[in-house]
Amino acid sequence: xxxxxxxxxxxxxxxxxxxxxxxxxxxxxxxxxxxxxxxxxxxxxxxxxxxxxxxxxxxxxxxxxxxxxxxxxxxxxxxxxxxxxxxxxxxxxxxxxxxxxxxxxxxxxxxxxxxxxxxxxxxxxxxxxxxxxxx
Length: 135
Description:
Blueprint: E1 3-7, H1 11-23, E2 27-31, H2 34-43, E3 48-51, H3 59-69, E4 78-82, H4 86-89, E5 99-103, H5 108-118
Parallel strand pairs: 1-2, 1-3, 3-4, 4-5
Helix pairs in contact: 2-3
């Protein structure tokens, strides 16, 4: 089971994403800001980090930069799930080969599909999505 870290300021949204990942067979850990995320990453290296760009205590761009500067975390894929437009975010971060973006709101199927692609897994069978439910 791959562990995915969710770094999201909205606790309800973080819990919903965590539940979605659990249903897809992934473990998850939640942090509500960049400082908590850095602590979690030091404790256990995740397979993927899903990050909100607008985080308290440092922000998503700062977290991304910190991760990329360390040889221990530089290769961890980071998926920005954010209402900040990708073009704006691209001015603050380097979209390297291990950095991805999805704009909020996003459907569960789209999120799980990209997570599966990033983790180099097969897409979830049967598209277990609920129409009209968006994060």
